[in-house]
């Protein structure tokens, strides 16, 4: 496979009106572009037809992480926080907007408790200390990504969460899983792994040479039962890039998935050789993103960008609440 190591190799122009701002009324009504890698052909289907692509011996693997209500605002409404992880009992790592108001030493308050900036990391995250320990998620809202140009509301509480979400710990949804309904899930052989989506999903790649990019660590776990099912399956259909990262990180050189809990910095880009997955269901991803690079590693950059160009012409809906593609 060709190595495309320049960040500009993963760029494309997307009309803003194609960025989905709301979910469809029914999850299963999303369009599904099907990419056939061997034939290099594309067809247009709907997600509710997924089961027709799942055959005997296949196993669909999904990420069952549950999104936390991690977005909070300061008491005066001037600062927006996304609480990424607890550092110590009264100290948190956060993303903040606007960053210019929250330099080292700056203070504000949440629920009447003062918090101050102790440190600004190289990626622009803030290490914040609290005068008192509080539940940062109480009163929080769903952490919709920045390209959804609105504040989250009651609809997002249910819809920015998969119907199988279980293990609490993510600050972003594994969006390829948002299309599933209990009905569709019950019609296909499946199992779950857990990877808690972290702040790395919001941070841009800044190096023009993508090889120099470093991923943030994300925690994942795979049960022994799930590992056995995966290792005994004829074909693995991974749902979402987070599932791919968990499976690839947990696999041996021979492709056998090991059960257990761990964290991964794995950055997948061409010409990565996949050891576990045989097919991938994924949403459409931002230009110049690590997620687009992962999909390009699996299907080939030229084929993927040709598919994206066709999706734009056909007015597919993009990103978290958008349509999906199935790569076979």
TL;DR?
Helix content is 16%, strand content 28%.
Mind explaining what this structure looks like?
- The structure is a single chain.
- With 328 residues, the chain is of the alpha/beta class.
- The chain folds into 2 domains: 7-67 and 144-327, QueA-like (3-Layer(aba) Sandwich), CATH 3.40.1780.10; 71-130, Thrombin, subunit H (Beta Barrel).
- The protein is built from 6 helices and 17 strands.
- The strands form 3 sheets. The protein has a 9-stranded mixed β-sheet with strand order 2-1-17-16-14-3-12-13-15.
- Strand 1 and strand 2 (41-46) form a beta hairpin.
- The model has no long low-confidence stretch (mean pLDDT 95).
Number of distinct helices: 6
CATH topology of the largest domain: QueA-like
CATH architecture of the largest domain: 3-Layer(aba) Sandwich
| CATH homologous superfamily (4th level) name of the largest domain | QueA-like
Secondary-structure blueprint of this entry?
Layout: E1 31-36, E2 41-46, E3 58-63, E4 65-67, E5 71-73, E6 80-88, E7 91-97, E8 107-110, E9 113-120, E10 126-130, H1 154-159, E11 167-170, H2 182-186, E12 190-195, E13 218-222, H3 224-232, E14 235-239, H4 241-249, E15 260-264, E16 279-283, H5 290-299, H6 301-313, E17 324-327
Parallel strand pairs: 1-17, 3-12, 3-14, 4-11, 14-16
Antiparallel strand pairs: 1-2, 5-6, 6-7, 7-10, 8-9, 9-10, 12-13, 13-15, 16-17
